[in-house]
Amino acid sequence: MDPVKLIIFIAVFLLLLLLGRKLSGAGEVQAYHPADAVPPQPGQVSPKIEDALKFRNAPALVGSELPFPVQLPELTMDDDGRYNRQEFVNYFFDEIDLVQGPPDPSSFADEFSVETRNPEDGFTYTHRFLVATPAGLQRSMEAEHLPSLYLRGQVVIVPRWDLKLILETVVQEIITLHGDYSSLRTGGHAIPDNDESKQI
Predict the structure, then answer these.
(1) In a designed cystine with 90, which of 14, 33, 111, 115 is the match (CB 3.0 to 4.6 A)?
(2) How many CA atoms lie within 13 A of 74 on its CB side?
(3) What does the pLDDT read at residue 52?
């Protein structure tokens, strides 16, 4: 068998496995809290542990709070009043912290959301992508004991954690989709939010 075809086959197989895990495991993970558990009082834990807990409970930064690391084409309007791209207002992962990254940069899988605003009407949209490494897909399959994985929707595979690369890939896809949808005068694969957000 041709080595290139074999590599493509393996990559597609791994992608399908991760998506199946994500779809089958959605909403099933819950933290266990015994009914009679009593939360520790401030005097019962050391100051170092209290500081760590405060840090851990702090809300994670989102993209609108950070410098945008991707060079965007200038926002322009054509003669028909249509813009060449949407405005990028925010981005975040479901679980991974944007600043700290995943615990293992070469093995992760998480949902990535990018919020954009249509400059023509002000509506905002949330574009969702599955971002993963091949090792992250394999680890997810093993953790869920999945013999196979079916992937659907938009998926980005990277060799290791690189937020700029991930964002560049997703931004290019969103800009391309916007151009395609503008020419068809239809909506996209995004969820309208109609949220007032900061423009990037």
Answers:
(1) 115
(2) 3
(3) 41
